[in-house]
């Protein structure tokens, strides 16, 4: 067992946006009892002792936590590299300056499209203008900036514009991430999954931009595993490099693992060290012993680790099966059917889509 | 020189010059991890574990040492690290934008 490198600290699931692609869990109301400042302080210290080097402050919208500056300062005092993953709503200049002083290392701001009407429609609230302004503040204060865009059927055709926007605000990195189907995105999959033609067009644009911007901006493109031959690697292996602490103190290998039928582990009742080493939620799929065929005898078993356990559970009801995104999976048909539906001609616009609620109630 | 060396999927652009003064990029931080007893380079989404000489080079990327001085220093510390290799390593770091250079 290795030490984890990264902690995803999900400070709250409250969020001013209502994106239909959100990967937060559907049962948001179960997470209202959030850890307080003192409890987060202990979590960060325990994480650092465990070997964690990077702390991703996420949510929901982490800026909704009034104690965010304190939490950043604590993480910074422990020597952790701190990364704020934010919608930027609530990132006023004064708040930004406080976070800078507290030692925040890096800011990642999401945007939903390249122009106000489309971006605001997807976000469910007027936000585009404020996001672009906040990106300017981040650069002015000398922070490195990552612009993050979750791609789906309703914005993937705008990828050239998104790249131009990222360039114009001076982003150091742009992350173009095809939607991962968990939580609200899973509920809205039929409306969000792009067609093959959309993906292929976008990938041509991305390749050209990569070449053109080679020395100025890193372009990270997260492929759509529904269209791949092999599944995405599970976080570098289940409970191998990362851990997640949810707003109420539950500990998971990754945020998507929340619905899996494994006993809860919580920082309220146990230390992070014990949870990492011994709790079933961490040990269930660690290593390769749990693997069924075709993974067990596959040459790629330590490349993609059987794919995503959470996706296997979601699609088949059994987290110990091969990720159906893999073309070798006996359940691959489940993915093929979803892809066929996305390419059946009708546009996604007429498919029902439920935005996630802003509040947790 | 380094097992996790910056990958070279993009062709190398320009090499570093002897008078350049490399400096770790703003979004990059070199730290000592007490759990692993290793120096570790941290970036927004990833960490890299350089080997001893790689970490020494990174430590000298402080905006004060020139490339020539770093090469000389590494040569003094490790007889087995050729100057060209240090320059190539620095060039890769610059190409990946983990290190920036100022001239003179």
From TrEMBL, chain A:
Gene3D superfamilies, sorted:
Aldolase class I
**InterPro entries per UniProt:** 4Fe4S-binding_SPASM_dom, Aldolase_TIM, Elp3/MiaA/NifB-like_rSAM, PQQ_synth_PqqE_bac, PqqE-like, Radical_SAM_PqqE_MftC-like, rSAM, rSAM_sf
Sorted UniProt keywords = 4Fe-4S, Iron, Iron-sulfur, Metal-binding, Oxidoreductase, PQQ biosynthesis, S-adenosyl-L-methionine
**Coiled-coil annotation: which residues?**
none
Q: Which family does it belong to?
A: Belongs to the radical SAM superfamily. PqqE family.
**Which PANTHER family does the UniProt entry name for this protein?**
PQQA PEPTIDE CYCLASE, RADICAL SAM DOMAIN PROTEIN
List the CDD domains: Radical_SAM, SPASM_PqqE
Ranges where the record places region Disordered: 342-361
Q: Does the keyword 4Fe-4S apply?
A: yes
Q: Identify the SUPFAM superfamilies for this entry.
A: Radical SAM enzymes (SSF102114)
Q: Which SMART domains match?
A: Elp3
Decide whether keyword Heme is in the record: no
Q: Which reaction does it catalyse?
A: [PQQ precursor protein] + S-adenosyl-L-methionine = E-Y cross-linked-[PQQ precursor protein] + 5'-deoxyadenosine + L-methionine + H(+)
Task: Cite the PROSITE patterns for this sequence.
Answer: RADICAL_SAM
Listed cofactors: [4Fe-4S] cluster
Q: What does this protein do?
A: Catalyzes the cross-linking of a glutamate residue and a tyrosine residue in the PqqA protein as part of the biosynthesis of pyrroloquinoline quinone (PQQ).
Residue limits of the Radical SAM core domain?
Answer: 1-216
Pathway involvement? Cofactor biosynthesis; pyrroloquinoline quinone biosynthesis
The name of this protein is PqqA peptide cyclase
Annotated binding of [4Fe-4S] cluster, by residue: 15, 19, 22
GO biological process terms, semicolon-separated: pyrroloquinoline quinone biosynthetic process
TrEMBL record, chain B:
Identify the keywords attached in UniProt to this record, alphabetized.
Answer: PQQ biosynthesis
Q: Which GO terms describe its molecular function?
A: quinone binding
| Coiled coil region boundaries | none
What InterPro entries does the database record attribute to this sequence?
Answer: PQQD, PqqD_bac, PqqD_sf
Pfam families according to UniProt:
PqqD (PF05402)
* Pathway(s) this gene product operates in, as recorded in its UniProt entry: Cofactor biosynthesis; pyrroloquinoline quinone biosynthesis
**One GO BP:** pyrroloquinoline quinone biosynthetic process
Q: Does the keyword Ribosomal protein apply?
A: no
Name the chain's protein.
Answer: Pyrroloquinoline quinone biosynthesis peptide chaperone PqqD
- Gene name of this polypeptide: pqqD
């Amino acid at each position: 067992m290795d030490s984890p490198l990264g902690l995803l600290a999900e400070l709250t699931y409250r969020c001013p946006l209502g994106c239909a692609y959100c990967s937060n869990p559907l049962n948001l109301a179960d997470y209202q009892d959030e850890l307080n400042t003192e409890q987060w302080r202990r979590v960060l210290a325990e994480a650092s002792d465990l070997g964690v080097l990077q702390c991703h402050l996420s949510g929901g919208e982490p800026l909704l936590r009034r104690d965010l500056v304190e939490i950043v300062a604590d993480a910074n005092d422990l020597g952790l590299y701190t990364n704020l993953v934010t919608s930027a709503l609530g990132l006023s200049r004064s708040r930004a300056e406080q976070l800078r002083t507290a030692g925040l290392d890096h800011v990642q701001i999401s945007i939903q499209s390249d122009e106000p009407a489309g971006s605001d429609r997807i976000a469910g609230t007027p936000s585009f203008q404020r996001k672009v302004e906040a990106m300017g503040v981040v650069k002015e204060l000398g922070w490195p900036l990552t612009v993050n865009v979750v791609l789906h059927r309703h914005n993937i055709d705008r990828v050239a514009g998104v790249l131009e926007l990222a360039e114009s605000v001076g982003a150091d990195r742009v992350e173009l991430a095809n939607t991962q189907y968990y939580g609200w995105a899973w509920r809205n999959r039929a409306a969000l999954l792009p067609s093959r033609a959309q993906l292929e067009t976008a990938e041509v644009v991305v390749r050209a931009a990569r070449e053109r911007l080679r020395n100025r901006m890193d372009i990270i493109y997260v492929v759509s595993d529904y269209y791949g031959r092999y599944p995405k690697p599970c976080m570098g292996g289940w409970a191998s490099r990362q851990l997640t602490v949810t707003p109420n103190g539950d500990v998971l290998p990754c945020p998507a693992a929340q619905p899996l039928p494994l006993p809860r582990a919580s920082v309220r009742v146990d230390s992070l060290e014990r949870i990492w080493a011994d709790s079933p939620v961490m040990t269930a799929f660690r290593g390769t012993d749990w693997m069924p065929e075709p993974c067990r005898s596959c040459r790629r078993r330590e490349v993609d680790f059987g794919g995503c356990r959470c996706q296997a559970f979601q699609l088949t009801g059994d987290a110990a099966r091969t990720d159906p995104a893999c073309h070798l999976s006996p359940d691959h048909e489940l993915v093929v059917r979803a892809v066929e539906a996305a390419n059946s001609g009708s546009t996604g616009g007429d498919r029902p889509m439920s935005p996630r609620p802003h509040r947790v109630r | 020189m380094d097992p996790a060396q910056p990958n070279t999927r993009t062709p190398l652009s320009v090499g570093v010059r002897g008078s350049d003064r490399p400096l770790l990029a703003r979004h990059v931080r070199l730290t000592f991890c007490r759990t692993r007893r290793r120096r570790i380079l941290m970036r927004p989404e990833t960490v890299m574990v350089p080997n001893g000489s790689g970490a020494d080079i990174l430590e000298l990327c402080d905006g004060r040492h020139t490339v020539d001085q770093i090469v000389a220093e590494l040569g003094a510390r490790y007889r087995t690290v050729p100057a060209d290799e240090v320059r190539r390593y620095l060039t890769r770091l610059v190409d990946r934008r983990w290190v920036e250079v100022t001239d003179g």
